[in-house]
Amino acid sequence: MKHIPLKNGFVSVVVASILAVLLLSSVTFLAKKGYESLDKEPSVLGAEDIRVTIDLNTPTIKSDFNVGVTHTQYTVGTGSSTAEVSGRELLKNGLTYANAHVHGWGVGPINETPGQPFNWSTLDARVNLMRMTGSTMVITFCCGPTWMVDPNWTSGTDWTKLEYGILPEHEQDYANLAKEVALRYPDVKYFQVWNEMKGLWNSSTNNWDYQRYTSLYNKIWDTVKAVRPDANIGGPYLKIEGSGGNTDLGLASHWYTNKPITSRNREVIEYWMANKRGADFITIDRNSIDGDENWSDYPEDKRIKLTHWFGDVIRQIKTYSGYKGEPIWMAEDYIWKNADTFQPTNEYQAAALASMLYHEMTGGGAVSLRWGPMKSGSLNKENLFTDTRVSGGGQALPAYAVYKYFHDYFGPNTQLFQATSSFPDVEVVSSASKTLLINKTPSPLNLLINNVVPVSLAAYEVKLMDTPTSAPTASPDTTAPTVSLVSPQEGAVVSGVVAVSAEASDNTGVIKVEFYVDGSLSNTDTAAPYSFSWDTSASTDGAHTLGARAHDSSNNSTAAIPVSVSTLNTVSDTTPTTTPVATITITNPTDGSVVKRSSSIKIDTTVSDYSTIAKTEFLVNAVIKCTDTSYPYSCTWKVPGRKNEMYRLVVKLYDSAGNTVMSTPVTVTAK
After folding, report:
1. Is 330 helix (H, G, I), strand (E, B) or coil?
2. Which end of the chain has the smaller Cβ count within 10 Å, N or C?
3. pLDDT tens per residue across span 401-417
4. Which CATH number fits domain 20-30+63-412: 3.30.450.20, 3.30.450.40, 3.40.50.720, 3.20.20.80?
């Protein structure tokens, strides 16, 4: 994170806070931007489409998950003003862990000059703040006094060198500093070593200098453990690169779009695992995208689809040969890191962070630390409460409620149960008492839980609710049968008594197949093989359309694609006409295409010779829908509202001599 040089020591800040609004069981987040869903049109997302199933008879994992914060340059102070007290109450009631650095981000310098007494004032203030909020305290051993990082140091502190690495000749000096910190604060139990490998880049290998990092880590481990064996120490605090945009969004392949964990990141982690002296936990951090990327490739609706990688990287680390079961922390995690000129809405941020935490928890993560909980300046950079230095500040932002939900209802030892959603952009996590629903779309959605409980979600809403006690009921059968006419075939000329047969199947069983001649029901067969005998002599000679419809026990039905045949039971003059018949072809829609139900579409054609054409008839499933007598020949057809229905489109052409010809049929499906 960017550091603002400390000029006047630790800055205490003041604010007023309103906590009551966070005690509601549901927080509705209204989107301010109307991006369309990438998966489905919001207008057709209804309760019949999105089903959530919660099965309290099927436990999954026990949560090991805690949420916390890292205090940065500007944060709530330790004073007694109403604002500060309110700010601390937010932290106390909604977060478990709290972290501070030993040098920078509001602290330091502790040891500005070698051999001089330590100046503990600013770090004391931070530790005192963490004590006042009842936090499980963490100290990050980063960064280093200028004299330890700059070989040309002469005096004082140069904040521009904050992110320089500890020089090899001063690694033990820094380990001794870490020891003094650990001894001064015996109630701090957790210590992270360094931050994002700052100052340790090796340009010759195009990777982090993991050997140098591990050397520093081991010196700190040995030195601190010698005096504080109860201290829990973790690393390598590596920034995990790779957005996954190549896999998920089809972006061009680069190191920064490839899926995490990249090979060079893995090299760092596995070396550290193999050569570290020990580890009580593993700590990493990541942003949803890297700074090298084109942010325009990741608009809000696409970026929120990448949150699953936060859990996936945790799962990957657990598969490494050097992994020994240590808890895995996210020291920093961002959706929009360093959004200095643009920010998504507060509501979007809350939904994206909720999804991120959900995946970290279900991926087996132990701790997630929100960097910079207090908003500083005009933009909300995934902060939890407003700036306490301004009048009326100290109020919780929507993301605070999200963190409090995880703190209150999904913390360590909480048994989670199987919870699924039929729509990938609705995520759900359930304990025996509470369920959290996350709408990752900019559209309002309707859900049906366990086929019993209807729930509405606003755009980008994160909703906490009591877990329904009703067990999942069987989903209604909405699968329609499949059916096709087998005999006679399209274009056949038949006479006498003809066997008309169909094949039909269904997931629960076909109860009957109805057979139609020219749209009128002629026969019903209730057992396979499905057929009936058609006496063609009872029909006039000429073109006829055969149809079939299969039914199941749940009132689902499907019509087969109609078949056109000709009957010939009387002898007629077969002398060929001397007038050529033009041909006609349907150009729109195309065969096999999908049309939107309840919409109006235009059926377009092309003809070989319009000068001889008297008229055209447009038939849908053998029923005339339009007649057109002038070129170009077309028809506007209103598609019925039935879902998954198939329709056969044919155009019949009449020429001036009374001859007719049929177009090649086109079949479409209404969705």
Report:
1. strand
2. C
3. 999 999 999 999 999 99
4. 3.20.20.80
Q: Is the Cα dihedral 141, 143, 145, 150 positive or negative?
A: positive
Specify the domain boundaries for CATH 2.60.40.10 within the chain: 482-567, 584-670
User: Is 8's pLDDT higher than 50?
Assistant: no
Q: Which CATH superfamily is domain 584-670 in?
A: Immunoglobulins (2.60.40.10)
Distances (CA, A) of 320 to 269, 278, 315, 368, 556: 9, 16, 9, 21, 50
Which residues fall within 8 angstroms of residue 44, CB to CB, at 6 or more apart? none
Phi-psi region of 353 (alpha: psi -120 to 50; beta: other; left: phi over 0): alpha
Q: Other C-beta atoms within 10 Å of 114: how many?
A: 11
- Positive or negative, the Cα torsion across 204, 207, 210, 213? positive
Is 419:405 a contact under the CB 8 Å cutoff?
Answer: no
- Quote the Cα angle for 117-216-119, to 5°: 15
Q: What is the mean pLDDT of residues 159-173?
A: 97
Backbone angles phi, psi at 271, to 5 degrees: -65, -45
pLDDT digits (tens, 9 = 90+) for 423-450: 999 999 999 999 999 999 999 999 999 9
CATH number of 31-62+414-476: 2.60.40
Strand ranges for 378-441 from DSSP E: 415-421, 426-430, 434-439
**Segment among 8-17, 271-280, 320-329 with least mean pLDDT:** 8-17
Task: Classify the C-alpha dihedral 145-150-153-159 as positive or negative.
Answer: negative
Q: pLDDT tens-digit profile of 474-529? A: 667 888 999 999 999 888 888 888 899 999 999 889 999 999 999 999 999 999 99
pLDDT tens per residue across span 99-137: 999 999 999 899 999 999 999 999 999 999 999 999 999
User: Which segments of the chain belong to CATH 3.20.20.80?
Assistant: 20-30+63-412
Six-digit token string for 253: 């392949």
Spatial distance between the Cα atoms of 259 and 160, rounded to a whole number of angstroms: 33
Cα–Cα nearest to 102, from 150, 156, 162: 162
3-state secondary structure (DSSP) of residue 563: strand
Residues 6+ apart with CB under 8 A from 28: 458, 461, 463
CA 443 from chain centre, in angstroms, equals 14
Q: How is residue 395 annotated by DSSP? A: P
Provide the pLDDT for residue 294: 77
Per-residue confidence band for 214, with pLDDT thresholds at 50, 70 and 90? very high
Global pTM exceeds 0.90: no
Is the bond preceding residue 424 a cis peptide, omega within 30 degrees? no
Q: Which residues contact 48 (CB under 8 A, 6 or more apart)?
A: 448
CATH 3.40.47.10 for the 482-567 domain, yes or no: no
For the chain, the distance separating the N- and C-terminal CA atoms, rounded to the nearest angstrom, is: 49
- Residue 646: phi and psi, rounded to 5, are -105, 145
Q: Mean pLDDT in the chain?
A: 88
User: What is the CB neighbour count within 10 angstroms for residue 663?
Assistant: 20
Q: What is the DSSP string of 184-223?
A: H-TT--EEEESSTTTT-EETTTTEE-HHHHHHHHHHHHHH
